[in-house]
């Protein structure tokens, strides 16, 4: 869902953030952390390749994996809510990941934007796949529309490269009244160079086929 025009390098000064900032967690994210802990200890290292099974784990603890609801309700009065942004990396993937704004106050029905910053900590290329989740499951995810994101867009970072990728979203005005906080989390899973090359080739083929079918 992203393209090269949305992907931008981050100046070195902007790419620095403290461990404390990157490690801040909200009480609203306890269920998300259960899954991240399981991933962190290697129980689901295969998750990036076995999304249905990972999805079952997420739903079991109240997390909606890789959701996107198109055409959410934007009519009627909006209200102010908080959106919490989280990020983590699986295993030993040498990437620092953090949202530009950890918490945003937004109005339902209005389009909002945030960036995630990525830094390759190694002096060699790295390849990865981002997987996102939303909590509370269903009750919030059914009202969460992603207009632009990097979800499941396989990425490559050059040695020591820093980039920022946008997330453009709307939360519907019909979000249940008792929900005042929605959490969006990204987990990065490492790919091999071969996996990445095959993914890029498959996407190019699909794009070419879509272009041929276009009127």
Please outline the major beta sheet.
6 strands, mixed
Q: Mind telling me the CATH superfamily name?
A: Ctag/Cox11
Order of helices and strands: EHHHEEEEEEEEEEH
Using the CA coordinates, give the radius of gyration.
17 Å
In which range does the helix fraction lie? 10-25%
**Domains, number:** 1
Per DSSP, the total helix count is: 4
Oligomer class? single chain
**Second-tier CATH architecture:** Sandwich
How far apart lie the N and C ends? 22 Å
Q: Specify the CATH class.
A: Mainly Beta
Strand content: 25-35%
CATH fold-level assignment: Ctag/Cox11 (Pfam 04442)
The tally of strands reads 11
Overall geometry comes to: globular
Regions with pLDDT < 50 over 5+ consecutive residues?
A: 13-29, 35-52
Mean pLDDT: 78
Secondary structure category: alpha+beta
Quick gist of this model?
This protein has 215 residues and is of the alpha+beta class. It contains four helices and eleven strands. The chain has helices at residues 19-22, 30-40, 51-60, 193-213, and strands at 8-9, 64-65, 80-89, 95-99, 103-107, 111-120, 126-135, 144-148, 155-157, 162-171, 181-191.
How would you summarize the topology of this molecule?
Elements: E1 8-9, H1 19-22, H2 30-40, H3 51-60, E2 64-65, E3 80-89, E4 95-99, E5 103-107, E6 111-120, E7 126-135, E8 144-148, E9 155-157, E10 162-171, E11 181-191, H4 193-213
Parallel strand pairs: 3-11
Antiparallel strand pairs: 1-10, 2-7, 3-5, 4-6, 6-10, 7-9, 7-11, 8-10
Structure description:
By secondary structure, this protein is of the alpha+beta class. The protein has one domain (8-213): Sandwich (Ctag/Cox11 (Pfam 04442)). 21% of the residues lie in helices and 34% in strands. The protein contains four helices and eleven strands, in the order βαααββββββββββα. The chain has helices at residues 19-22, 30-40, 51-60, 193-213, and strands at 8-9, 64-65, 80-89, 95-99, 103-107, 111-120, 126-135, 144-148, 155-157, 162-171, 181-191. The strands form two sheets. Strands 2, 3, 5, 7, 9 and 11 form a six-stranded mixed beta sheet that branches. Strands 1, 4, 6, 8 and 10 form a five-stranded antiparallel beta sheet that branches. The longest helix is centred in the C-terminal third of the chain and has 21 residues, at 193-213. It is globular. The model is unreliable at 13-29 and 35-52 (pLDDT under 50).
């Amino acid at each position: 869902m992203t393209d090269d025009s949305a992907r931008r390098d981050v100046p070195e000064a902007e790419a620095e953030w403290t461990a404390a900032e990157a490690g801040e967690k909200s009480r609203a994210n306890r269920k998300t952390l259960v899954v991240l802990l399981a991933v962190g200890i290697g129980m689901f290292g295969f998750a990036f390749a076995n999304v249905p099974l990972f999805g079952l784990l997420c739903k079991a603890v109240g997390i909606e994996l890789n959701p996107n609801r198109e055409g959410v309700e934007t009519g009627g009065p909006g209200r102010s809510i908080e959106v919490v942004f989280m990020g983590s990396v699986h295993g030993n993937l040498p990437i620092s990941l953090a949202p530009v704004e950890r918490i945003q106050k937004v109005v339902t029905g209005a389009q909002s934007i945030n960036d995630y910053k990525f830094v390759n900590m190694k002096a060699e290329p790295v390849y990865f796949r981002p997987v996102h989740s939303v909590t509370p499951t269903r009750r919030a995810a059914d009202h969460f529309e992603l207009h632009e994101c990097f979800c499941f867009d396989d990425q490559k970072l050059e040695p020591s490269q820093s980039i920022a990728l946008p997330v453009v979203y709307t939360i519907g005005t019909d979000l249940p009244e008792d929900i005042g906080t929605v959490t969006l989390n990204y987990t990065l899973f490492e790919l091999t160079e071969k996996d990445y090359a095959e993914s890029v080739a498959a996407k190019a083929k699909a794009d070419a086929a879509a272009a041929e079918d276009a009127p």
